[in-house]
Design brief:
The chain is α/β, with parallel strands linked by helices. The chain contains 17 helices and 18 strands. It has 2 domains: 267 residues, Rossmann fold (3-Layer(aba) Sandwich), CATH 3.40.50.2000; 188 residues, 3-Layer(aba) Sandwich (Rossmann fold), CATH 3.40.50. Bound molecules: adenosine-5'-diphosphate (ADP) and alpha-D-glucopyranose (GLC).
Length: 486
């Protein structure tokens, strides 16, 4: 049975991206569409979307629409296009006063209004089109008020009355909290009792919590993380609400879009390779080292990092471990990322301390991210928490051995190599501390020094299959279960 699915997301590749949510929203939509479901993707019409490449057509009857968010008045228009590379229909919600800013996310005082407005406008668009999604699939805090809005503002709306909701938690570390003084922005009137009362008393409104309370089904992006977020250690204050909904919470590991992330066809690379042609990987590494200004020889192991430089990613552990390991052993390091100032400063200093061996490229650069996956020997992800993580799965396909902490999706996608049996795909450490990371780095370097063994690890990884096809079936199962429920 095919379904009508509305996906509400704050970013989606290839239109706009800051992290993995974009990859997932784009690829899941594509997969659902390919499976015969009427899948429509709603995203904010950010200024940074390249409209010469992605050309939206104005949707008739949805231009200059009045939108009230509490006492705030906005005007929005809807443009539509098909997602490049697939037939998914995308609706861009244009509202320049809200989305015409330099970055996708801001620390501006109206940040909550930007996404309340987006959520309401997306639902209004379904209603105005007379298109009745059976499933409204929202993602993270930005669209987490959709389930409550459907029960309140849109309860009498014929196109939406029967919609069931799914909330996927990609990152519990971001909850979109705003002041209880702004409760009027939700315009719930005599249904304001539906807001989480303890939070209100504490002076806050937590969008993600309301998604957890009111979505028909909850998912997060790996089975391990689904268990983790119900615990005090990983729940980030939402563990009680999650425990109440534990029976409705499923962990579904993200997939990989192998149409984009595969060294056999990667459009960013001048040469392609697979497990039978690893010499090409070495050629790419050689070219990359020269281009990036490394002086180390191609035989020296190259470790790569591509990351938002945020506390989540475990960079603090590297402060002590990396200078020590770099000081003691042959190792080169390429880092691509942008984020919190202390982390950027750390990598800047490290590059100064180890010239020709450490290169820090500050910023966001998709093509360079692909090159790092292709040219590196090792990929470092010592995350404090990692709901899923995509780069370790990309790394596996590129024969770039991931070194990860055993948490969330890292634990579910990388198996610690066992030299005795020859099974396993990477280096996995347990404790979030400096000695554990140092042990993992040294273990990786010891294994690298044994070329036959290293090639075995590479090939084990390259044989893994994390394609979306299998993963999207698990979402479809949930959708179907919900639509059958009275
Ligand atoms: P998160 O969503 O927490 O950032 P993921 O591992 O799920 O982590 O996804 C990160 C995605 O963003 C990957 O596709 C990665 O290649 C990409 N990415 C992160 N930082 C950069 C950057 N500085 N330049 C290019 N791509 C980046
Ligand atoms: C998040 C998580 C990451 C996950 C991504 C996509 O931002 O930090 O682990 O892979 O969302 O689900």
């Amino acid at each position: 049975m095919s379904l009508r699915v509305a996906i509400l997301a704050s970013e989606a590749t290839p239109l706009c991206k800051t992290g993995g949510l974009a990859d997932v929203a784009g690829a899941l939509a594509e997969c659902l569409h390919a499976d015969g479901n009427d899948t429509r993707l709603f995203i904010p019409g950010y200024a940074s979307i390249d409209r010469s490449r992605f050309v939206p057509q104005p949707v008739e009857g949805l231009q200059d629409m009045a939108l009230e968010v509490g006492a705030h008045r906005y005007v929005f228009s809807v443009g539509t296009l098909t997602l490049p590379g697939s037939g998914v229909r995308v609706y861009l919600i244009d509202c320049p006063v809200l989305y015409g800013r330099p970055t996708l996310y801001t620390g501006d005082p109206d940040e909550h209004l930007r996404f309340l407005a987006f959520t309401r406008a997306a639902l209004m668009t379904c209603a105005a089109l007379g298109w009745a999604p059976q499933i409204v699939h929202c993602n993270d805090w930005h669209t987490a008020f959709a389930p409550l809005f459907l029960r309140t503002h849109f309860a009498q709306e014929p196109a939406l009355a029967a919609a069931r909701t799914v909330l996927t938690i990609h990152n519990i570390g971001y909850q979109g909290i705003f002041s209880a003084a702004d409760a009027g922005d939700l315009a719930l009137g005599d249904q304001a009792h539906l807001l989480h009362q303890d939070d209100l008393r504490a002076g806050i409104i937590n969008p993600l919590r309301h998604g957890i309370l009111y979505a028909d089904a909850l998912t997060t992006v790996s089975p391990t993380h689904a268990r983790e977020i119900c615990s005090d250690e990983y729940g980030m204050g939402l563990q009680d609400s999650l425990r109440m909904r534990q029976l409705d919470l499923t962990g579904i590991l993200n997939g990989v879009d192998y149409g984009v992330w595969d060294p056999r066809i990667d459009v960013n690379l001048p040469q392609h390779f697979d497990a039978e042609h690893l010499a090409v990987k070495t050629d790419l590494k050689r070219a990359f080292l020269t281009r990036m200004g490394f002086t180390s020889d191609v035989s020296v192991p190259l470790a790569g990092i591509v990351s938002r430089l945020a506390r989540q990613k475990g960079i603090d552990l590297m402060f002590e471990a990396l200078p020590r390991v770099l000081g003691a052993r042959d190792l080169a390091l390429i880092v691509l990322g942008t984020g919190d100032a202390p982390y950027e400063q750390f990598f800047r200093d490290l590059a100064e301390q180890f010239p020709g061996r450490v290169v820090f490229q500050r910023g966001y650069d998709d093509a360079l991210a692909h090159w790092i996956e292709a040219a590196s020997d090792l990929f470092l992800m010592p995350s404090r928490y990692e709901p899923c993580g995509l780069n370790q799965m990309y790394s596996l396909r590129y024969g770039t051995v991931p070194m990860v902490r055993r948490t969330g999706g890292l634990a579910d996608s990388v198996e610690h190599f066992d030299p005795a049996s020859g099974a396993g795909t990477g280096v996995v450490f347990n404790d979030f501390d400096v000695p554990a990371l140092e042990w993992a780095l040294n273990t990786a370097l010891d294994w690298y020094a044994e070329p036959t063994q290293w090639r075995r690890i590479m090939r084990n990884g390259m044989a893994q299959d994390f394609s979306w096809k299998r993963q999207s079936e698990q979402y479809i199962e949930i959708y179907q279960r919900l639509t059958k429920r009275k």
